[in-house]
Design goal:
Blueprint lengths: L9 H4 L6 H20 L2 H26 L7 H19 L3 H20 L8 H20 L9 E2 L3 E3 L2 E3 L2 H22 L3 H11 L1 H6 L4 H27 L1 E2 L6 H14 L4 H24 L7 H22 L3 H13 L7
Antiparallel strand pairs: 1-4, 2-3
Amino acid sequence: MRIGTLKESYVADAALFDSRTQHAWLAIAAVLLVLFPFIASDYWLYLACLVAINVASATGLNILTGYTGLVSLGQAAFMGLGAYTVAILQTRYGTPMLLNLLAGGVVAMLGGIIVGIPSLRVKGLYLAIATIAASFIAHFLFANFEITGGTAGLSLSPARVLGMDLDTSFRLYWLIVPVTVLMLLGAANLFRTRIGRAFIAIRDRDISAEVLGIALLRYKLLSFGLSSFYAGIAGGLWAYFFRVVTPESFPLSMSIFFLAAIIVGGMGSILGGILGAVFMTMVPELLKLLVDLLPGGASLAVFLSPVRLVIFGALIIGFLVFEPLGLAEMWRRMRRFFHLWPFRN
């Protein structure tokens, strides 16, 4: 177990990963991520891509809700803005994939800034209701504008990189996972800067933060913008992954899904966003696999489906009751108890 780390320079003190142990575990994680697509089936590659997309979006929501303390139920709408931007640019103009993703993030960011304007006057449940209203407005726009394809939506051709179509889960894995890793590193670095510390100060006590000279409206809008940018990138990846974008692709329930993910995983923690997204995505699939393994499970799947939902809901409630700080805190306790991986978050 690492007792302490001697810092001999400012650069060493500001390093994101400050020990050889962390570097070793990161190298192992990188090797596993590289090897995974070569040994996994198409089904598990599909789930890996879906988990990575959900991790990216949950991380964005964690910036806003977990670190800044602003409750939002509009994450799905911002993902929709990113997805539709990518779909429109891809189908109408044939612009490059990376440009489409960046444009999707920027459009979603602008939408998030507009939605975040009321955050100076309202917060808590009132702000959540305002973001719900934004979700309904976005759904109306998606369903009634000709450029978005109306209720039928838009279909995309596969993304292309260096003349290669990314038309399989194996190929898309090499797009989605690296982009998600970069977004996680960006979020982790954000909270080592003045901007990230301002977000945390607003979350802890916004009046005190304003007294200290933090411009509340500016930083709240910046938090909304960054969170929506992450959602827009995730939405763009989602569009390339499923290659069909419709108004029903981003319902309010998806926003609730991401809010539940960061609560279960642990708000105000990058690790919490990762664990929460993995939990919310994988547990229903694992329960489905367990049902299929039961004698006659395939024929009883229709009848056991509600049971799976009840079990899934019970697990979420159990985490909220017995570990309100989320899976990230549970991991930290296990690490301290067993002297496990000294991964600092």
